[in-house]
Design goal:
- It is a single chain.
- Helix content is about 70%, strand content about 5%.
- It has helices at about 5-30, 30-40, 45-70, 70-75, 75-110, 115-140, 155-185, 190-220, 225-250, 295-300; strands at about 145, 150, 260-265, 270, 285-290.
- α1 packs antiparallel against α3 (about 45-70).
- It starts with a helix and ends in a 9-residue tail after the last helix.
C-alpha cells in the first residue's frame, strides 16, 4: 500500500510539472505580443518587471522540478530547509512584482497622486515586512517529513494570507472608486480605463478565490503547500505578464510611453507620452489628447484614439 508521504510526493511532482508546462505554454501563446511589445522595445522598468516575472517563474519551476526529481537529496534536512527558503523567497519576489505592476496601473489612473503613492508605499512596506517575517520566522517552524513534505505549518500563515487579501482589496477598491468617478465625469469609456478596471477586478477575484481555498484547506484539513507552490508561481507569473501585454497592445507602438488623466476647466484630458514606442510608467509628458464634448460620450479621442 502506498504511504501517505509517497502520495503527497507524487502530488507535488505532478503539480510541479503542471506548473512548468503551464507557464511555458502561456509564454508560447503570448510569444507574438511579447516579441512586439517587449523584445523590440527599449529597456525600461516595465520591461524588466515583465522579463523577471516571465522568465524568473520558468527558472523557479525548472529548479523545483530538478530538486524533486532527486528525492534522496531532499531527505537531507539542511538541503530541504534551504529549498523551502528558496521557495519562500521566489514566491515573495514574484508576488511583490505582481502587486507592483497592479499598483502602478492604479497610480497612473489617479494622476500620480502623492496620497495614492503614500498608500501604496505603506502597503508595500507592510507586505515586505511579512515576507521577511515568513522567511526568517515561519519557515524554520514548518514541520517536514523525510520527503521534505510540509505536514504542519504555524497559524501565522493565515495572517500572511489575510495581508495579501487586504492588499488586493485596497488595489481593487481604489480602482473601483476611480472608475465610479470616471462614469460620473464621462471618461469611463476610454479603453485604457476599461482595461485597468477589467484586469483589476478579475485578478482580484481569482487571487481571492485561490487564497481563500488553499490557506484554510492547508491549515484545517490537510497541508498542501507543497502542491500549491508551483501552481501559485505560475498563476502570479501569468497575472503579471498578461496585464502588461494588454496595456502595451492597447496603444500603437509608435506612440506613448506613459498615461495620465488631468483635470481641466473644459473637462478631462488624457495625456499620452510619446517616446521611443514603449508603453511605460516613466515620468514623461509630451502630448495631450483632449477628452471633451462628444468624445467623452463616444469614448473616442480628438487627436488619435487610444485603442
Amino acid at each position: 500500500m502506498i504511504s501517505s508521504s509517497s502520495t503527497q510526493a507524487f502530488a507535488r511532482n505532478c503539480a510541479c510539472l503542471a506548473g512548468l508546462i503551464s507557464v511555458i505554454v502561456d509564454g508560447i501563446l503570448c510569444a507574438g505580443k511579447e516579441y512586439r511589445y517587449i523584445w523590440q522595445q527599449p529597456w525600461s522598468r516595465v520591461k524588466l518587471l515583465y522579463l523577471f516575472s516571465r522568465y524568473g517563474a520558468i527558472v523557479v519551476q525548472i529548479v523545483t522540478c530538478v530538486m524533486i526529481s532527486s528525492p534522496s537529496s531532499l531527505s537531507d534536512p539542511h538541503i530541504c530547509y534551504n529549498w523551502i527558503l528558496f521557495q519562500h523567497i521566489s514566491f515573495s519576489s514574484l508576488y511583490f512584482v505582481f502587486e507592483l505592476v497592479l499598483m502602478l496601473r492604479v497610480y497612473a489612473l489617479y494622476k500620480k497622486s502623492a496620497h495614492i503613492a503614500t498608500i501604496f508605499t505603506l502597503v508595500s512596506l507592510l507586505e515586505i515586512a511579512f515576507f521577511v517575517y515568513n522567511t526568517v520566522s515561519v519557515a524554520p517552524r514548518l514541520v517536514l517529513d523525510e520527503k521534505c513534505i510540509i505536514t504542519e505549518a504555524p497559524t501565522d500563515v493565515i495572517v500572511f494570507g489575510l495581508v495579501l487579501l487586504q492588499n488586493q482589496g485596497i488595489i481593487v477598491g481604489l480602482t473601483l472608486w476611480r472608475y465610479r468617478h470616471a462614469i460620473r465625469d464621462g471618461w469611463a469609456n476610454i479603453p485604457v480605463v476599461k482595461l485597468v478596471m477589467r484586469d483589476g477586478v478579475w485578478i482580484f477575484c481569482a487571487i481571492t478565490a485561490v487564497l481563500a481555498a488553499t490557506i484554510p484547506y492547508s491549515m484545517f484539513v490537510e497541508n498542501m503547500g507543497h502542491v500549491f507552490f508551483s501552481l501559485l508561481i505560475t498563476t502570479v507569473s501569468v497575472f503579471t505578464c498578461r496585464p502588461i501585454l494588454n496595456m502595451q497592445s492597447l496603444i500603437p507602438t509608435d506612440q506613448q510611453n506613459d498615461i495620465h488623466i488631468h483635470d481641466t476647466e473644459e473637462g478631462f484630458q488624457f495625456t499620452v507620452s510619446l517616446t521611443d514606442s514603449f508603453v511605460s510608467y516613466d515620468d514623461i509628458d509630451v502630448s495631450v489628447v483632449s477628452l471633451v464634448g462628444s468624445a467623452n460620450e463616444r469614448g473616442t479621442v480628438n487627436e488619435g484614439t487610444v485603442g
